[in-house]
Amino acid sequence: MLVDRFDRRINYLRISITDRCNLRCIYCMPPEGERKLRHKEILRYEELLRIVRIGIRLGINKIRLTGGEPLVRKDVQEFIPMLAALKGINDISLTTNGVYLRDNLEMLKAAGIKRINVSLDSLKRLNFKLITRFDYFNEVWEGIEKARDMGFYPIKLNVVIMKGINDNEVLDFGRLAIEQPYHIRFIECMPIGFESNSMAFIPNSEIEKALIDKFGPLIPVVPGQNDGPATRFRFYGGKGEIGFISAISDSFCQDCNRLRLTANGMILPCLLSNTEVDIKDPLRKGCLDEAIIEVFLKAVDLKPKCHALNLDNHQGVYRKMCSIGG
Ligand code: SAM
Ligand code: SF4
Fold this sequence. Notes:
This protein is of the alpha/beta class. Helix content is 31%, strand content 16%. The chain has a twelve-stranded mixed beta sheet. Iron/sulfur cluster binds at residues 21, 23-25, 28-29, 67-69, 97, 119, 321-322.
């Protein structure tokens, strides 16, 4: 079992399977994109499967695939079923921008994936285009509705609200959580990679207040065993949920149960620090499983008690979110 220095049990691995993306969200990627990893820098599927198998021996039982955009990676349609078939994983999910969701839903369902997160920062086509720099709102929305009709649950919609950009849509998202079974999760904009992210920051407390003023009280939802850092609520009579992930204004580190694996084979003990542990190097040198176990143990040992982003002397996070996976 992986337990860190602060007695947190680590059972969750988030895997970024590619650094590439078909969108350029303004808070995540520059318009020209990032330098792309070379093919040989990226962990191959068989390497990922080996890492996960070893992780399972250590108590990892929850996996999320992310990116870049996971659904743009070649042959992901073969990889996901292989991953999902591994014994010992009891929760596997995906974070996607949704552009290719519709065409992958049958595959995801057949692989036994029930939960998906779709990042959607606007319910308006033009604003979606402003934020993502691409005109794919209709494709994403179609994917979300088809997923709902096919019985995927929960469908979480990750929303980053930014001052002056989409803060006029908070109530529209609130209404959506009343009328539809979607779980809207407001994620505070993190100052990772872009100066402008700090200017765009709105604390979730402001969003919560606007929602309560308009729609009435938010009723807390009892947290589930596999819940992440979101605090969850419902409106009376609402079909969906509202969740807040307040990484900046209300650190959630005390319950952190995760490690992150980047596409180029680094394990990150914490989203908001620059510490990385190389797992690709020993893997490619043909090491025994024990050496990979050592890497897991080292990464867990390096987990900080709490992220330091709010401290004055914090140097910032060097990686951009598109290479961490969120
Ligand atoms: N491309 C996929 C997607 O967009 O869902 C997966 C990768 S993306 C990096 C994962 C999540 O990180 C998305 O929900 C995105 O909104 C979030 N994200 C990216 N940059 C962020 C930032 N600076 N602050 C907060 N969330 C961010
Ligand atoms: Fe791509 Fe996701 Fe980053 Fe948007 S948030 S640019 S979809 S990786």
